[in-house]
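Contributing new records

If you add data, match the layout below exactly. Sequence lines come first and carry their own label; structure lines follow with theirs. Keep one chain per record. Anything else will be rejected by the validation script.
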Amino acid sequence: MAFAHLHVHTEYSLLDGLSRIPELVQRAKDLGMSALGMTDHGALYGAVGFYSACVEAGIKPVIGCELYVASGSRTERRVGDKSPSHLTVLARNNTGYKNLIQLVSKAHLEGFYYKPRVDKELLAQHADGLIVLSGCPSAELSVLLMDGNTEAADELARWYRDTFEAFYLEIQRHENLDFQDGLNAGLLGMAERLDLPLVATNDLHYVKSTDAALHDVLLCIGTNASVNDENRFRFSDSSYYLKTQEEMAELFADLPEALANTAVIADSTDVTLDFSSLHLPQYPTPDGEDAEPYLRRLCWAGFEARYPDGGTDAQKQRLEYELDVIETTRYPNYFLVVADIADFARRSEIVFGVRGSAASSLALYCLGVTEIDPLEYDLVFERFLNVERKEMPDIDMDFQDDRRDEAIRYVVEKYGRDHVAQIITFGTLGAKAAIRDSGRALGMAYADVDRIARLVPTRVGMTLETAMAESQEMQEAHAGDETLRKLIDTAFGLEGVVRHASTHAAGVVISSDPLTDHVPLQRPTKGDEDGVAMTQYAMEPVAKLGLLKMDFLGLINYSILDNARRLVRDRHGVDLKLSEIPFDDKKTYELLASGETTALFQLESPGMRRHIKDLRPESLGELAAMVALYRPGPMEHISTYIDSKHGRVPIHYPHPALEDILKETFGVIVYQDQVLHIMRLFAGYSLGEADVVRKAMGKKIASLMQQEREKFIAGADTQGYGEQIAGEIFDLIEPFAGYAFNKAHSVSYAVVAYWTAYFKANYPVEFMRCVLNAAEGNADRVAAAVFECKRIDIPVLPPDVSRSEVAFSIDVADDGRTAIRFGLASVKNVGAAAVEELVAERTANGAFASLEEFARRAGAEAANRRVLESLIRAGALDGFAHRGRLLATLDQLMQVIGREARLKDSGQSTMFDMFGDSVPTPLAQIELLDAPEPAERERALWERELLGVPLSSRP
């Protein structure tokens, strides 16, 4: 008998389901199942991936959700009402799928209270195209039956039957549940009374029965419990897995119709996800003009502005070619949207730029989206967009990080709150986290768990398999200790499972239609009810559905540059525009050649500093090459590149025909763009076709590599190159296809690196002041910046309540040198809120003439023991007395500050003299207590703790 599992939890039932979609679908296929459901708790996170995996496996996907249903209205938030009932809902068709999206979205956006909840009103509004199963034992109908409230249960069942296209009583048979037999008897009685069909389900949470113990650990991780706790939340037995059709037939042998109805339901469903259509936002052009001609007009107007002399034929042909490709691929609206965002940022004086391959577009250069002329740097447009590649191009925009939210708000206001959302991302259990979480859940001693976790190298992409292969100690622990073996095996079983959802750091999606026509939404994970909503689908599914996804990245270096530019303008009257900074500044290249590149974008690591000093770059192109080379993989070619530049070794071209392509990088393949040019030269590929092949080569699939190799050699033969040389060239470029940087990205990064170097070389005080402010809150970065200031002879002065601003500021040292002074908010335990009132008072009414005057005017926020003690220990009150006496007098000082603040709030800080004029009340006297002056070492330790670095002395 055909059977389909219709109550299925994947790993997207976060920390409750263990079924990884690929394994789940493969197991269903191996068992000969023709359909499979997905009903995760309260969300549709995995729906697109599940759908695609099922289709690829030849299995019908039945998309659903186990909804949470509020006991009353979804908008009510009753204290203690933390456990809404469950309801299994399946999409019968595309209308049902869209209604399911509406339900889960509104559950999150309107009904969230501990769980995302729907209510009867919402269910009735979005009932079309949905099949409802009565649910598990936590369903409302089940609870009513178990409570013996048959009349109310019948009424509820009739409501579901009359509201939805199909309604089934869901019956399960798990072991060790005291209520199971009674509940099932009640369901059978209801089925007979109301003539309702039954459907058999297994509350599936993992793929195989042997996964039950792993699932128990996962539950403990989710509930912060231990498997040793007998009272923990746990499942009743090990039957919550993907049972075979035979196992289900045996379990429900007395209810063949309940089994048959699973196939009836599956056969009745027909949901098709559309991956071929685009849903790009429609840019509102003036007078409703079509996007294509409007984009052309903007680009050619920008062309005239970029090339006042009229431009060359090559430049004109390039723009015409790009516009043709943009129109062919149906992306004019995309380009107009991006150009509009760039225009907003420019008008708002927000520093922005693009990263990635988008900088290779002349159209974007003419639209003012990028400041990089792609023809000047020989950037390949096809690496960004070509007709052969099916994926939507990525235009990733960087904004200064302190104003990124303004760009997002602008997009929301422009296209509507229901058309814009941030994108979700899912965190998985990495190698170390799997060990630590498993250890806690298994109740193991922290020291043992920590020892094993520390054996896992801290590298990007590290897996437990790799760690085991590299660590003899881990192998010995696994082989020789049963407890540690269980820990490691458990971690292996849980590694990679989805652990949590969060807001993607950069992803934003913009749609022509309301987003809930295509994707479910929820609140952003930071819990801001009024914030921009977040998709329940991650980046890849969002793009697959034809929606415009963009990265709005916050770049702290842009904030540093903007603040430095403004500071230079205020202090020197020089209004520097970043786009107008010359790329031939002598002082900048001298700084780079010195290798003293601390605080410079992409250039401050010790290894990079060493290589930059050895390279002594003389152009932006050489700087871009170093940015591209200083990465795993190409890093091994750095010495060849540098030695070839300086003539220490002869420049070697693998083939004479490659000289034109590799001349700028001294014979070394540095960029993906060079790989494309080589493919075109040797094998006759178009640049677009070459990019498709490059991407395929990067996947390192052996059969695909052999296929592409043969194709390349055949193409080379038509170009007049022999099989041997063609094979050698293919073998040469093959590894670079996987790890070479795209040139546009390298040049984009090099420009930002150069700008930071320019400011450091020409305006070091202003630049380092902005670097220090950007580092606030990160003691290590503050310390590094302070040491760099001292190295380049910029004095860094300690905080001082009589001179410091809230943040780092420029001041004058005792010897007359321009210096940088610590801000009061930069003192640990203080923060901006505690000192803003103090600084505002001092700015308005002058410096504090005495400790008593400071106490009167400091404000209520300063009357906090932790704040005041930290300021004293950091030296911010040294102008009044040494720190020992001030600390001894701390209680008295706090009382006076607090009393004066209360008097001020009550309006009693002044009194009237005999002539009726308002005069200040007499200053309270503070008796400084005697105490020894702290030793130099003690002061240094305080400063290191509170400032990140000792300033007044050396420890």
